Every structure is written in C-alpha cells, then in structure tokens.
Amino acid sequence: MNETKRPEKCSGCGIKLQTADKDLPGYIPGVAFEREPVICQRCFRIKNYNEASSVSVDQDEFLHLLSGVGEKNALVIHIVDLFDFEGSLISGLQRFVGNNPVILAVNKSDLLPKVTNWNKLRNWMQQRCKEHGLRTAEIVLCSAKRNQGFDRLLEAVSELRGQRDVYVVGATNVGKSTLINRLISDYSDLEQELTTSRYPGTTLDTVKIPLDDGHYIIDTPGIVYPWRYSELVERKDLGAVMPENPLKPAVYQLNEGQSLFFGGLGRFDFVKGERQSFTCYISGTLKIHRTKLERADSLYQEHRGELLSPPGTADMDKLPQWQRHEFRIGRNSQSDLFISGLGWIKVNGTGGAVVAVHIPKGIKVLTRPSLI
C-alpha cells in the first residue's frame, strides 16, 4: 500500500492510527497497513483473541463532542441497557442535543420474561426519561444479541431522519457498536464493521460512516460511568454480573431480620416489616445465599471469596469496601430496589418495609417504581 494512501483512522474503533508507541491508543505495526481492513492492534486483538488492552481515553473530549450536536441538524439515537436502565441513561443529555429528536433504543429487551407487558414498559421508560428531563421522539425495545426490534428501529430512523446525520450515543458496553453495524448494513454500501466486544470503551473516537445519500452515521465513544458494577469488575468477569440469558426471577419469602447475599457482590437486608416476598432479578450465574441478618457480617468475613464469591473472580479485595444504604418502602408502593449493573429486587408486599443494601462504595443504588 502506498504510504500517502494509508488511512489515518482505525476502521474498527475510529482512533487515529500511529506506529510510534505500542502502549498508546491507535498503535499499528507498519506491516499491518497491508491488511484489509486496516485496524489498530487493540481491535485486532479483540477480533482475533477476544482480549483488549487497558487503553483509555479522556472523557472530557466526549462531552466536548456532544456539546456540538445541539448546533447541528441531527437525529440522536441514545442506546441504553434495559438491565441497567438508570445506570446507562445519560443524565442531562437534553441540554446537549437541543431540539434535535431523540430515539431511545433500549437494548437487551430479550432478558425480560415473555409475559412482560410491553406497552406498560414503554410508559414506565417514558416516565423515567421525563424525570431526567429527556424528551424522546420514540422508544424502541430491541435486542442486539437476538436481532430483535431492529425493523422498528429502522422505521423510526427513516421517519425522523430526513436530511439529518445520525449520532449514536450511549454508555460503555450497552451494545452500541452491534446496533450500528446493523444500521450500516441497511443504510450504507460501505463494507465496514465496527469492533464489537464485551469490553467497555471499545469505540475510542468518533467514527463517521458515510450513508448513500451523503449524510453520516456518527458513532461516538462510550461514556464510562463509574457507578456501574460493569466498570468495577475485571474484564474477564463481566459475564458474571451481566446476564446473557433471559432473567429467571428468584422469589424469596423473608421474615424481618433476614438477608440475601448475591454471589459475594452485594447484600440485601430485610430490616423491618411483616413477612413478605421479594423477587430478585439478577444474573443466573450469581448464587443467592440466604441467612439471618444477625449472622450476615460474620458470614461475610468468614466466607468471602469462597462460599460468597462471584464466578471467576479470584481477588475480591480489588473491589471497594462495601457501603450500607437504607431505604423505607411505603405501603402499596410497588417498588424496585435498583443496583446499577447488578440488577434489582422487587418488593412485593403492600405493608411497607425497611430494607438495606450493602454494595461496593460508589455503586448507584436507588428505589424506583417497579419495572415489572
């Protein structure tokens, strides 16, 4: 390949290519320019060996990029993770996008039970967005893994795009690149596939994909939100906390003064209230262990990393110390206790309860109206 015709950016992740330092983003050995497509060493490793180096980029650059979207004529697709809805929603997105229409693409809808009321679910999401000040032109439920919901997403894009470029935004690891690959196949003749992996932050810079009508799909870097459990665990252990198969609700009848451990990654206490049931929506790979509240602290000290251990995680000491969060659930409130990236516990009783969660410091925990 002629030196002057070498591409400047990686066709997988969009980072500017360089041959000087293999430890910096965008490194590519000189001989790799002969391959098609031309991708950086990091993307090559992800594609061929399912591994990623610890390259990171400054997120301030992403915010700067996003701030310019409101000044352009654009359609914004905001992709969120249904399993981690509050953790992956971009708070304050409205002030960046201005009056441009926003499609909320809710990925991983395949994780919910088949009996789910989808209209009720959309109304629930509309209300959550409203609370965050986000106006959505359309909410589309989809599954990148099972290739579901894309026809409706493409219809929504066709209805709203007009003469606009399409910006795709989202937190890390919500399935953004997989969805964009589908958009490419439907809107562009360009035979290009973004680097897709389960590692956060796979897309390192903006990637402009030309469409057949002269406009572009612009893929933006994923935002790293430190309050998500998926940002805390080691990359090799992401599969332990992020479910890949439909959730199987685990129902527990608890008395006041009982606790549930979630594979050593968190603890739920039923502190006060009448006997009632709680439904846990977490990854099936995490074992739930029930014990008495009075024994919970000593059990954790004695068995952390053994009985109370997530699959595959060898060193739990790398996680931050646990912090206790207490909540008072009102009567007839139909509430979830949401833990970002780990799942949620639905409170089924109508008489109210005092509950607590012990989770690594910094993880987002909140109560919300029940999702299901």
TrEMBL record:
<dbReference type="InterPro" id="IPR006073">
    <property type="entry name" value="GTP-bd"/>
</dbReference>
<dbReference type="InterPro" id="IPR050896">
    <property type="entry name" value="Mito_lipid_metab_GTPase"/>
</dbReference>
<dbReference type="InterPro" id="IPR030378">
    <property type="entry name" value="G_CP_dom"/>
</dbReference>
<dbReference type="GO" id="GO:0005525">
    <property type="term" value="F:GTP binding"/>
</dbReference>
<feature type="domain" description="CP-type G">
    <location>
        <begin position="63"/>
        <end position="226"/>
    </location>
</feature>
<dbReference type="InterPro" id="IPR019988">
    <property type="entry name" value="GTP-bd_ribosome_bgen_YqeH"/>
</dbReference>
<protein>
    <submittedName>
        <fullName>Ribosome biogenesis GTPase YqeH</fullName>
    </submittedName>
</protein>
<dbReference type="InterPro" id="IPR027417">
    <property type="entry name" value="P-loop_NTPase"/>
</dbReference>
<dbReference type="InterPro" id="IPR048422">
    <property type="entry name" value="NOA1/YqeH-like_C"/>
</dbReference>
<dbReference type="Pfam" id="PF01926">
    <property type="entry name" value="MMR_HSR1"/>
</dbReference>
<dbReference type="Pfam" id="PF21516">
    <property type="entry name" value="YqeH-like_C"/>
</dbReference>
